[in-house]
TrEMBL record:
UniProt KW keywords: Hydrolase
Cofactor list: a divalent metal cation; Mg(2+)
Segment forming the signal sequence: none
Broadest EC class assigned to this enzyme: hydrolase
Enzyme Commission numbers on file: 3.6.1.-
InterPro entries in alphabetical order: NUDIX_hydrolase-like_dom_sf, NUDIX_hydrolase_CS, NUDIX_hydrolase_dom, RppH
Family statement drawn from the similarity comment of this UniProt entry: Belongs to the Nudix hydrolase family. RppH subfamily.
Protein name (record): RNA pyrophosphohydrolase
Record's keyword annotation contains Disulfide bond: no
Xref: SUPFAM superfamilies: Nudix
Length: 166
């Protein structure tokens, strides 16, 4: 593909979940397809659950499905949403490879969800292979400082908004 062709690829519709525990901490999980898997919790690339919107599925339905698939629990309910869609481009070395090679990046609708269970209700082995190998609960304000890779600008927007609108 030429650089012009790559830049003309569409964005994949996607949802993201900021999952909050009763104490206000948010769930973040370590990706299994990046370096650092299986190591100390200070290693690896971390993200909040997210995923594509299937067919005619609504974003509300998609975020609950994605959370169920990725962290193995349905002890969640939607409490809010970011007012706009947030688009990001993949890094140049991933365009044409990641996301099936069909997209230049993603446009995401983000939601806040309340988690009503305990850590024992989270099962990262629902998918084969699992997307995540570990999770932790962190302060919302710390998300952009963690290793969230090229998605850091997305997390900065989310933190800025939800620190004042939750």
């Amino acid at each position: 593909m030429t650089p012009e062709t790559l830049q003309n690829l569409p964005y994949r519709p996607n949802v993201g979940a900021l999952i909050f525990r009763a104490d206000g901490k948010v769930l973040i999980a370590r990706r299994t397809d990046m370096p650092g898997v299986g190591g100390p919790l200070t290693e690896g690339v971390w993200q909040c659950p997210q995923g594509g919107i299937d067919g005619t599925e609504t974003p509300h339905d998609a975020v609950l499905r994605e959370a169920r698939e990725e962290i193995g629990t349905d002890k969640l309910h939607i409490t809010g949403e970011y007012p706009e869609w947030i688009a990001y481009d993949l890094p140049p070395n991933l365009i044409g490879k990641a996301l099936g090679g069909k997209f230049r990046g993603q446009t995401q609708k983000w939601f806040t969800l309340a988690f009503t269970g305990t850590d024992a209700d989270i099962n990262l082995n629902q998918q084969t292979p699992p997307e995540f190998d570990a999770f932790q609960w962190v302060e919302l304000a710390t998300l952009p400082a963690l290793n969230v890779g090229f998605k850091k600008p997305v997390y900065e927007k989310l933190v800025d908004y939800f620190m004042h609108n939750r």
